Amino acid sequence: MPSHILVVDDDQFNLKLVTETLKRDGHQTTAVDSGVKALEVVQDIQPDLVILDVMMPEMDGYEVCRRMRKMSDVNRIPIVMLTAQDSLEEKVRGFEAGADDYMTKPFEPVELQARVKVWLRRALAVEKETGEVVGKTISVFSLRGGVGVSSMAVNLAVGFAGLWQKPSVLVDLALVSGHCALMLNTPLKNTWADLATIPTEEITADVIDEVLLSHPNGVRVLAAPRHPEDAELLDEEKIIHVLDILQANYHYLVLDLPHNFTPPSLAGLDASHTIMLLMSPELASVRGVSATLDVFTSLGYYRDRVRLVLNWVFERRGLAQKDIEKVLRDNIDLVIPFASETFVSSINLGRPPVIDDPKAPIGALFEDLAFFLSKDEHRKKKPESPTEAWERVIKRYRARRK
Ligand SMILES: Nc1ncnc2c1ncn2[C@@H]1O[C@H](COP(=O)(O)OP(=O)(O)O)[C@@H](O)[C@H]1O
Ligand SMILES: [Mg+2]
């Protein structure tokens, strides 16, 4: 089967040698001459295999490998490192960085062809065995509270469930003080605390399914513990494990993150395909966003994974969008208008706007946003039995284009 292989090497001669060899076997190739470029293109091209040189200026192969392992939608792609001959140390470092295999330079073209066959076959076998859906994961984040993080998370999760009628889950990672379940008026039968007492290796999809709350709209909720002290029983490893399982079993995950960079927050950010970074039109909030973007850069998150959202949580006298953009030296991707009454009813009655009144501007905005953030495979073709939510989104879309 022809496959798409990403080849990364700063040496032009080597780059050509590898790609020409692969092309002879009918593989499609993308060649880039730096690690930075590889990171830029890998999510777009979704290769079946990455062949990665170790010694490169600017960013070496280990670092590229580590960063790819942190990108949620490419972290399963096999990575093969090209190391200098017989350097055990290099091989070990490669595996530590998350490489699947290595090949020493110089190599014979036939050896490369044979090995590529094996790597691709192995990758295919893994895919079949796990038979996973890849849960599109959206996190909502802000370093400051009160800017509408939970409101957006709840509305998006409800939006996904309503649009596609596919397994969707809202994960409250604000473990100490989260109130997602309350915002959906869902009785707190079970919470994260129920998972705290179970050893991580015993937590399976079935176990998690029993802990998830069910909302009439179809969305499931993993609620924050009732007692803040229970949050401390949940270590990072367990949270990552639970997120992994959810991603393999649910089509959409929306993460309501706490307003900090503690382990639950970092685990959630790492697992996300898209991060909605919220701010209100106040200087402190904008500064928080600026600081957050710096942290994201140091975590290796690319800007294209982040959506900057300005939420008018108050009515007047906020900073103008263009001034905020000047401070951030970046563009706001989405503005949510002030919508006091709808939001207050949402909190008090446990009915988010997307459910309460999806035709009102704010409900429609979140429903459209959920559609826009949906998987390509869902968005790009008409569902067999379209939901009312889908019909509404399409109707609005057509009206806007007229
Ligand atoms: N666009 C908006 N217009 C009016 N009120 C809003 C808006 N977005 C959020 N709110 C209100 O702001 C408050 C804080 O929202 P919440 O989602 O709990 O924020 P966070 O999770 O960031 O602390 C809530 O009372 C919510 O109803
Ligand atoms: Mg909140």
Summarize the topology.
Elements: E1 4-8, H1 12-24, E2 28-32, H2 35-45, E3 49-53, H3 61-70, E4 79-84, H4 88-96, E5 101-105, H5 109-130, E6 136-141, H6 149-164, E7 168-172, H7 180-183, H8 192-196, H9 205-211, E8 213-214, E9 220-222, H10 236-249, E10 252-256, H11 263-271, E11 274-279, H12 283-299, E12 306-311, H13 321-328, E13 334-336, H14 340-349, H15 353-356, H16 361-372, H17 376-379, H18 388-401
Description:
The protein is α/β, with parallel strands linked by helices and 402 residues long. The chain has 2 domains: 4-130, Rossmann fold, CATH 3.40.50; 136-401, Rossmann fold, CATH 3.40.50.300. The protein is built from 18 helices and 13 strands. α4 (88-96) links the parallel β4 and β5 (101-105). The protein is globular, with a radius of gyration of 23 Å. The two termini are 44 Å apart. 40% of the residues are buried. Residues 142, 145-151, 311-313, 336, 338-340, 343, 347 line the site of adenosine-5'-diphosphate (ADP).
Give a short synopsis of this structure.
By secondary structure, the chain is an alpha/beta fold.
Keywords:
402 residues; alpha/beta; Rossmann fold; 2 domains; 18 helices; 47% helix; globular; binds adenosine-5'-diphosphate; binds magnesium ion
